[in-house]
TrEMBL record:
<dbReference type="Pfam" id="PF05773">
    <property type="entry name" value="RWD"/>
</dbReference>
<protein>
    <submittedName>
        <fullName>RWD domain-containing 4</fullName>
    </submittedName>
</protein>
<dbReference type="InterPro" id="IPR042770">
    <property type="entry name" value="RWDD4"/>
</dbReference>
<dbReference type="InterPro" id="IPR006575">
    <property type="entry name" value="RWD_dom"/>
</dbReference>
<feature type="region of interest" description="Disordered">
    <location>
        <begin position="133"/>
        <end position="161"/>
    </location>
</feature>
<feature type="domain" description="RWD">
    <location>
        <begin position="9"/>
        <end position="111"/>
    </location>
</feature>
<dbReference type="InterPro" id="IPR016135">
    <property type="entry name" value="UBQ-conjugating_enzyme/RWD"/>
</dbReference>
């Protein structure tokens, strides 16, 4: 049997085994994703596997570089990949996707026993930016003129329900000012 025939047979088997399973996703005829664990489980991870041209005689490419795995530490990812590589070596030359996926499901607790959820660098940067932004906003607020209680009461007394001053509220002051200027000229 040629490598392509082996791949086609294994692909058909995977499609029939994992039909309707939301843990398995076929990205292309030679690339797959398999989620180990539930979506809401902090110890779940997503394996991305792609077949090279001469699979199963050569090892599939296994990756944990998906966004779903951003909470896994580099050490945890490396540990999972090393254990998966051991399984690949043991099954080299045979159709191994089902075996790998099932082994990962059964070994999830062992693979994730030292897992400590990490906060991604992107989150840390954005939180510090938020902190800096809130600090600058509070500095701007400090520069704003502070009104006394009496001034606030007087201002509230002059405003309507929208907080706006009624049209012409300062006309009296304008008229006084213009009449004073006229009187001083005369």
């Amino acid at each position: 049997m040629t490598a392509n025939e082996d791949q086609e047979m294994e692909l058909e088997a995977l499609r029939s085994i994992y039909e309707g399973d939301d843990c398995f996703k076929e990205l292309s005829p030679v690339s797959f994703q398999f989620r180990v664990g539930d979506l809401d489980d902090s110890k779940s991870f997503l394996l991305e596997v792609s077949w090279p041209e001469n699979y199963p005689e050569s090892a599939p490419c296994i990756s944990l570089d998906t966004f779903f795995n951003n909470r896994l530490s580099a050490q945890t990812k490396q540990y999972i990949l090393s254990k998966m590589s051991e399984q690949v070596e043991a099954n080299l030359g045979t159709a191994m996707m089902y075996t790998l996926f099932e082994w990962a499901k059964e070994s999830k607790e062992t693979l994730m026993e030292n897992h400590q959820p990490v906060t991604s660098a992107v989150t840390l940067i954005s939180s510090s930016d938020v902190m800096n932004n809130s600090t600058s906003v509070s500095k701007k607020k400090e520069k704003k003129e502070q009104l006394t209680k009496a001034q606030k009461r007087k201002l509230i007394g002059r405003t309507d329900n929208k907080g706006e001053l009624p049209r012409g509220w300062n006309w009296v002051d304008v008229i006084k000012h213009t009449t004073e200027q006229r009187e001083s000229k005369c």
